[in-house]
Design brief:
Helix content: 25-40%
Order of helices and strands: EHEHHEEHEHEHEEHEHEH
Largest sheet: 8 strands, parallel
Shape: globular
Strand content: 15-25%
């Protein structure tokens, strides 16, 4: 099937500084890998600027105002020790969140069944009132709320970034209409995501130890998919981080490209059974450029299989 691809060159202008691992080259690596893959059928879409109304479904007005006000006219400004804004960062962050919101709305009205959002900065660490972990706005949380506003009331979010999506969990842990499932390395930043954190029964965390075998990761992921299936979502949103790759410098996992393809096939299987095949995936982490590009391409190939 043809897959909608939401991205924008403005997101390259988020430049947190030389040596910062969340660099513009990450997005270039993903886009180049997708463009070079002859097996992909992508329908490019410009990522729009997110409406402030969409941000306010997740973030308090005071926080949104503070991020907008922090955008520097020159140089850089740090929102936290890891999250740095340059002159192009606010525009990039608004396009990243806007891509995810636009993608779910397109899926909700039947314009497309699947979409991949090649975005930066990432979003799953951003809490309702705090930017952190390279993330300014909670992109997939904004998307989930936009989907619900568009009529898809039961939304599942599956996060396979190697770091726990603390921000996404914080948004939804008291909302039984959204199911959040995360698999992540522990111990690792940000130190949240213990399996005991279950919210109102709508939070499922699975942890893997450093250097865990790929088979262990897959087994625990399958356990999460059983829970997502039982939730019976109308839409599945994916926080697609590729930093559990064996080459990634920020983690100690053993995954390779085919593991990410396997994971999205498992997600699609649930979506086909429960959500009329509706899946929107959004880029989160992944910091080895070669591994990131190859993994994203494998992920998108599997996402478009049907």
């Amino acid at each position: 099937m043809t897959l909608a691809l939401y991205t924008h060159l403005d997101m390259l202008d988020h430049q947190p500084g030389d040596g910062h691992v969340e660099s513009p080259q990450r997005l270039r690596a993903v886009i180049d890998a997708l463009n070079d893959d002859p097996n992909l059928e992508l329908e490019p879409q410009d990522a729009p600027l997110v409406d402030v109304e969409d941000l306010l479904r997740v973030h308090p007005q005071a926080f949104v105002d503070a991020v907008f006000a922090a955008a520097p006219s020159s140089g850089r400004r740090a929102l936290d020790p890891d999250t740095v804004m340059s002159t192009g960062s606010l525009l990039a962050a608004r396009r990243a969140a806007g891509a995810c919101a636009a993608a779910v709305r397109a899926v909700a009205v039947g314009e497309t069944q699947r979409a991949f959002c090649a975005v930066r900065p990432p979003g799953h660490h951003a809490e309702p009132g705090a930017a952190m972990g390279f993330c300014m706005f909670s992109n997939v949380a904004v998307a989930a709320r936009a989907a619900q506003a568009a009529g898809l009331k039961r939304v599942a979010i599956v996060d396979f970034d190697v770091h726990h999506g603390n921000g996404t969990q914080a948004v939804f842990e008291n909302d039984p209409t959204v199911f959040f499932a995360s698999i992540h390395q522990s111990p690792l930043y940000p130190g949240t995501g213990d399996p005991s954190e279950t919210g109102l029964g709508n939070i499922a965390n699975a942890i893997v130890a450093p250097h865990a075998p790929r088979e262990t990761w897959r087994s625990r992921f399958e356990g999460l998919m059983d829970k997502v299936d039982a939730f019976a979502p109308e839409l599945v949103i994916v926080s697609a981080g590729f930093d559990a790759h064996v080459r990634d410098p920020l983690s100690a996992q053993s995954l390779e490209e085919d593991d990410f393809a396997w994971a999205i096939r498992a997600i699609v299987s649930v979506a086909n059974a429960r959500a009329k095949g509706r899946v929107v995936s959004s880029l989160e982490g992944g910091y080895d450029l070669q591994a990131l590009g190859r993994s994203a391409a494998a992920h998108v190939r599997a996402l478009q299989e049907g």
